[in-house]
Amino acid sequence: MADSAKPVVAAFDFDGTITTRDTFVPFLSLAFGRRRVALAFAVLAVEGVKVWLRLSTRDRFKELIVAKLFRDASVSRLSAVGREHARRIESLIRPAALERIRWHHDQGHHLVMVSASLDLYLEGIAEHLGFQDLLCTAPSRDQSAFDGGLEGPNCRGPEKVRRLEALLGDLSDVELYAYGDSAGDREMLAAADHPYYRPFEAA
């Protein structure tokens, strides 16, 4: 049973949990154009089949997409695109998710967004929604341009728990609420005192 004396933390996945749909591919289309993104996915179709056959992983596929699209792209330009995308996807936020976020905020709980989506647009959304911390995937950069890599692993699956532990310490020392909607949230939900799987879809 959770200890009410412990600090309370609410960890929310973003895509599909707070929002009604994915926001990563639409960002790519906005940043690089639909034709270029479609071509990148076509070039990596064999790797996509490997993921489907469980011979590769979604994490590896994402690394390859980022390498193909982001290398040498301007940090300032994509940061501006990210801010525009953040404004656009405000309309995708589930009302029930927003209500729950506000409830945690009103209770004085520590709000953490934990997502495999990109910092380029999540920073603005997380701030707008009142999250104290953002744990997410970030393309790595070399001064003014992206270098085609990631700053650490894709923030999905076990990596979500590792990031939370790095931020909070031993998770047994906090009372953890977790909200997710996919297999990529399984480990985070398993680590929570109060796990909620797709809680906002029926609302």
Automatic annotation (TrEMBL):
Keywords: Hydrolase
PANTHER family listed in its UniProt record: HAD-IB FAMILY HYDROLASE, PHOSPHOSERINE PHOSPHATASE
GO MF term (any one): L-phosphoserine phosphatase activity
Gene3D superfamilies xrefs: HAD superfamily/HAD-like, SG protein - dephosphorylation function
BP GO terms, sorted: L-serine biosynthetic process
GO CC annotations on file: cytoplasm
Keyword Cell inner membrane found: no
Keyword Hydrolase annotated: yes
Species whose genome carries this gene: Thiorhodococcus drewsii AZ1
Protein name: HAD-superfamily subfamily IB hydrolase, TIGR01490
